[in-house]
Amino acid sequence: MLSITHGSISRRRFLLGLAASLSPLFNKVPSAHSREFVVSNRAVIATQSAPQAIGPYSQGIKVGNTVWISGQIPLDPVSMEMVTANITAEAEQVFNNLSAVATAAGGTLDDAVKINISLTDLGDFDAVNAVMASHFNDPYPARACVQVAALPKGARIEVEAILAL
Fold it and tell me: Cα separation of 134 and 78, whole Å?
């Protein structure tokens, strides 16, 4: 039979208390700084086959197997002029631009898991759907389509995408 004296109980409580108070020092949750370090494995996706950024952003960013493609408007990548013939031609240019960035990232539009479409006129919804359907295979990605007041350079359509490679 084990006998415990009053002195050994106090010593045990002291050691357990000390261990409990020191434990947080050795089991820290990573700080904001170390989370930034972990995120630094991102790769910038850039291609001459899509319009160059018209602001302080990248054409795309890849982290692991996920690619975020910045919103594309109907800019011709060579002339950097807007395609303005009609909404079908504009949407074609936008999806061609998205495809070029997806290719530069090592994927295709069929790797898209989410598409966000912004239109200045929801009356263009059906025409954009037809163009989108010609650039993707079933199963289609998740999607949102919203009407906005205005887009850069007077564009009537902007589309961004998230790919899972």
Answer: 23
152 contacts 101 by C-beta, under 8 angstroms: no
Quickly tell me which residue has 């910038």 as its tokens: 44
Specify whether 25 is located in the same domain as 103: no
Catalytic center residues: 145
pTM listed for this prediction: 0.76
75 and 45 within one domain: yes
Structural domain harbouring 24 = 6-35
CA–CA separation, 20 vs 13, rounded Å? Answer: 10
Structure confidence by residue, pLDDT tens digits, 52-77: 999 999 999 999 999 999 999 999 99
- Rounded to 5 degrees, φ, ψ at 87 are -65, -30
Please give the Cα distance from 33 to 29 (Å, whole number): 11
Q: Clarify whether residues 11 and 81 are in a common domain.
A: no
Mean pLDDT computed over every residue of the chain:
86
| pLDDT tens digits for range 11-39 | 666 665 655 555 544 444 443 332 323 34
CA pair distance 151, 135, nearest whole angstrom: 22
